[in-house]
Amino acid sequence: MEEQTFLSQKMEGSSSGTTKEINIENKKKKVLIISTNLQEEHFNMNQIFVNLLAKHYNV
Questions:
Q1: What does pTM read for this prediction?
Q2: pLDDT of 16-58, one tens digit each?
Q3: Which residue stretches belong to region Disordered (predicted)?
């Protein structure tokens, strides 16, 4: 089973991630797809996003 990260908010102005709506068990969910870290700005945006997730989930 593939793990997916579900978010209630999307980061504004992020060029490194996109959100898409998918249907899981007949419910619409938003998922964030994070791009590779090949460009420095993508790495920085992904790092900010990971820190937000860690804070949200108390990791």
A1: 0.41
A2: 455 555 566 667 666 666 667 778 887 888 888 888 888 888 8
A3: 1-21
Phi and psi at residue 58, to the nearest 5°: 55, 45
- 3-class secondary-structure state, position 2: coil
Domain that holds residue 38: 1-59
Residue carrying structure tokens 């619409």: 28
Look at strands 17-24 and 27-34 and give their pairing.
antiparallel
For residue 31, list its beta bridge partners. Answer: 6, 20
Q: Please give the tally of structural domains in the chain.
A: 1
- Count CA atoms within 13 Å of residue 14 on its CB side: 20
**First-to-last C-alpha distance (Å) of the chain:** 23
